[in-house]
Automatic annotation (TrEMBL):
GO MF entry, a single one: O-methyltransferase activity
Protein name (database record): Methyltransferase
Any single biological process term in GO: methylation
UniProt superkingdom: Bacteria
One Pfam entry name: Methyltransf_2
Record organism: Kribbella capetownensis
Alphabetical list of SUPFAM superfamilies matching this protein: S-adenosyl-L-methionine-dependent methyltransferases, Winged helix' DNA-binding domain
Length: 337
């Protein structure tokens, strides 16, 4: 495995304070304000003046804020990038939403997960019990789609299909983009109750309700049948091999002999250990492992998983977003249970 050329200091890789304080600063809006004198800033943010001074001193020392001779506080380029509300970054750092909740769980549960101690049986139940948190997760997923969906939608694969089922499609950020880009397509989105309701509203808002059906169902049970392709985008990585195989098998059963199962996932590799993409992928892998008992997989892992339920790889494309598009067909042999 190649090593990174610049070696970080121990503090850079062990400090827990910086990531938490940056998230808190994003959440209270400290990084997204216009240049403002310290005293006005405290009033605007509704926090104590002495607390603000602490935060500002800390963030200025790390090049995230700057303070001029008159005490005017501004975000640096780094601060502006962190708090940019047009991308998914700020949603990922919002300490009060789903991302914050998952980050806190990660801190609490990482050691237990590494030691193989019992985890929550179904992490999605936490979202089902808390509609606000669940909605925040869906918003996060939709925001992150800006990183990968446009490129995926342009793939010629979709032009060869008449109908698709988007399994675990969230609020429809992929399915509805596909329907807008490919007029011959109709689709169904299968989701948990909360996102399914939001997806139905979104279909109506976008004027797509006549071409898009929304079904509330558990992906581990029977799925709507007869669609040309069953899409699993960033779904399998939320499950361990056993759970992922159940979902893949359900998709393979539903698509029938002529259908396809389309998987969109990051594929882990060892050949770019120091690239930003690989750093992201390995962090996401651990996050998924601790929070969901899942994780990112290598190409061989995905291949073997699909083969275990009678699916064989037909096409594979690496996308610039770091994801891979994998198209599987059912092999003639009966699906193994
Ligand atoms: C990581 S998100 C991926 C969302 C979307 N496909 C994307 O690529 O952005 C996984 C999705 O699977 C859904 N999901 C998880 N468990 C499910 C289940 N048992 N049945 C139906 N949907 C489920 C979640 O609600 C969530 O929207």
């Amino acid at each position: 495995m190649p090593q990174s050329t610049s070696v970080p200091s121990p503090d850079q890789v062990t400090d827990l304070v910086t990531p938490v304080v940056v998230r808190v600063a994003v959440t209270i809006g400290l990084l997204s304000t216009e240049p403002t004198p310290m005293s006005q800033l405290a009033i605007g943010l509704g926090i104590d003046d002495s607390v603000l001074r602490r935060l500002v001193r800390f963030l200025a020392a790390r090049g995230i804020l700057s303070v001029d001779a008159n005490g005017v506080v501004s975000s640096t380029e780094l601060g502006r990038r962190i708090s940019d509300r047009t991308g998914s970054y700020a949603a990922r750092l919002d300490w009060s939403g789903a991302a914050g909740r998952m980050d806190r769980s990660f801190v609490e549960d990482c050691l237990a997960a590494v030691l193989g101690r019992q985890r929550r049986p179904d992490p999605w139940a936490v979202f089902d019990d808390d509609p606000v948190l669940s909605g925040s997760f869906d918003t996060l997923m939709s925001a992150r789609a800006a990183e990968w969906a446009d490129e995926l939608v342009e793939d010629p694969l979709w032009g060869r299909l008449g109908s698709i089922a988007d399994l675990g499609g969230g609020r429809g950020h992929l399915l509805y983009r596909l329907l807008q880009a490919w007029p011959q397509l109709t689709g169904v989105l299968v989701e948990r109750p909360g996102p399914a309701r939001a997806a139905q509203e979104e279909a109506e808002r976008l004027g797509l309700a006549d071409r898009a059906q929304v079904v509330t169902a558990d992906l581990r049970g029977p799925l709507p049948t007869g669609y040309d392709a069953y899409v699993l985008a960033h779904v399998l990585h939320d499950w361990n091999d056993e759970g992922a195989a159940v979902i893949l098998r359900r998709a393979a059963e539903a698509c029938g002999p002529g259908g396809r199962v389309v998987v969109v996932e990051r594929e882990l590799t060892d050949d770019q250990a120091s690239s930003a993409a690989e750093l992201n992928a390995t962090a996401q892998d651990l996050r998924l492992f601790v929070l969901f008992g899942g994780g990112e997989r290598t190409h061989d892992d995905l291949h073997a998983l699909a083969a275990s339920v009678g699916l064989s790889l037909e096409e594979r494309r690496r996308l610039t977003s770091g994801r891979s598009l994998l198209v599987f067909a059912r092999t003639p042999s009966p699906l193994r249970r």
